[in-house]
Amino acid sequence: AQVIIGAAPTRGTAAFDGQPAVVIGIQKQPGANTLALTGAIDRVLADIQSTLPVGMTISANLFRQSDFIEVGIGNLGRAIIEGMLLVIAIVFAFLLSARATGITLLAIPLSLVVAVLAMKAAGIGINTMTLGGMAIALGALVDDAIIVVENTVRRLREDALLAEADRRGVIDLVFAATREIQRSVVFATIIIVLVFLPIFFLSGVEGRLMQPLGFAYVVSLLASLVVAVTVTPVLCSLLLPRSRIVREARESGLSRWFKARYRPLFSATIARWRSIGIASLIGTVLTLVALLGAGRAFLPDFNEGSLTINVTTLPGTSLDQSDALAGRVEQILLAQPEVVATGRRTGPNSIRTRRRSTPPRSRSRW
Question: Could you give the 3-state DSSP secondary structure of residue 123?
């Protein structure tokens, strides 16, 4: 007999945007950094592209997990910035003092820096869960500092109304103002931290997901407490005694507006405390009943900007027929304005068509 090397059997076809292509999937090992690995693969593919014949191109944008990660981190980063701006606006609207607002807001960057350093020491990276913990902690980070600032301002105003001989030193006043509310601030912070402690005892996938979020939140909160009882009093003693908020001893219009409407509401509530308590209890019970009847899922729905569609034909369908059917499906998908790219791999008994659609905020990325 004559033995020769024949052509390799055709076991499947592939296409990209309706054109014949070679589709290769690369999966990372557990523990590998997706963003770093994707960057390394892009550099290798760029080197390979320079050696390919004319007309042969490499497209690395069919399905990239790094894109979903970057969109998620970008959204969280934007949420942190927007949250900081909202905190600045609200604090200034109530204090009506640039110095007092600056002292209060300094707790945010200091607390976040401490949280990042603590995460680095613990081997935790910046990801969607840690950024989420920082984002939800933003409003709480200024709580302790703003209490210290407001009480210090009150003490300084009262001291300014006294005779010169009866006035106390600034250091003593700030120290007394801080000590006056220190216990309440510490207890309030510890109570919030205790609520998050059960998260650190979770095991399995839920523990891996939630523990970084809880760690970032708790460390940021504890750092804000330390800042409120150390850095904040020092800055109050240096910047507030000669500030306009102390000299003029006047509240902002927003504070006066809220107080004027809160006083009658408070009086009515105190007079009807039994009715308020019963209504609150009924509302709590109804909430628990609604919670028991609510749907449950391990993770919320994600919009990765991509869909995986499996089309299965009858057993015995030839590769040519499967390829033609897959091509029709691909053309139908490409006719949709939301679809910007498709890639498929077709085997003898199954067709796999992958559709990629743009995320709501990142259409230009694809």
Answer: coil
Mean per-residue pLDDT for 189-204?
88
**Phi, psi (deg, nearest 5) at residue 282:** -65, -40
β 306-312/13-16 pair status = unpaired
The answer to whether the beta carbons of residues 350 and 311 sit under 8 Å apart is: yes
Helix axes 34-49, 65-95, angle to 10 degrees: 130
pLDDT of residue 363: 28
Give 39's DSSP letter. H
Distances (CA, A) of 261 to 18, 287, 360: 66, 28, 42
Instruction: Write out the H or E segment, with its range, that includes residue 308.
Output: strand 306-312
Sign, CA dihedral 160-165-166-171, equals positive
Position 322 confidence tier, pLDDT thresholds 50, 70, 90? confident
Phi, psi dihedral angles at 97 (to 5 degrees): -150, 125
Q: Which two three-digit tokens encode residue 201?
A: 């005892």
pTM of the predicted structure, to 2 decimals: 0.72
Name the pairing type of β-strands 306-312 and 350-357: antiparallel
Question: Residue 285 CA to chain centroid, in angstroms?
Answer: 31
Q: Is the dihedral of CA 215, 216, 220, 221 positive or negative?
A: negative
Q: What tokens were used for 302? A: 């994600």
CB-based contact 142:87 (threshold 8 Å): yes
Q: Which residues are 19's β-sheet partners?
A: 16
Residue 315, SS3? coil
Distance CA 12, CA 19 (A): 15
Helix, strand or coil, per DSSP, at residue 357: strand
Token pair listed for 352: 């796999």
Q: What is the pLDDT of residues 122-135, one digit of tens each?
A: 888 878 888 888 88
- Split at pLDDT 50, 70, 90, the class of 359 is very low
Which residues are within 8 A (CB) of 100 and not within 5 positions of it... i.e. 6 or more apart? 149, 153, 240, 243, 245
Tokens of 355: 């559709």
Q: Which residue has the higher pLDDT, 356 or 317?
A: 317
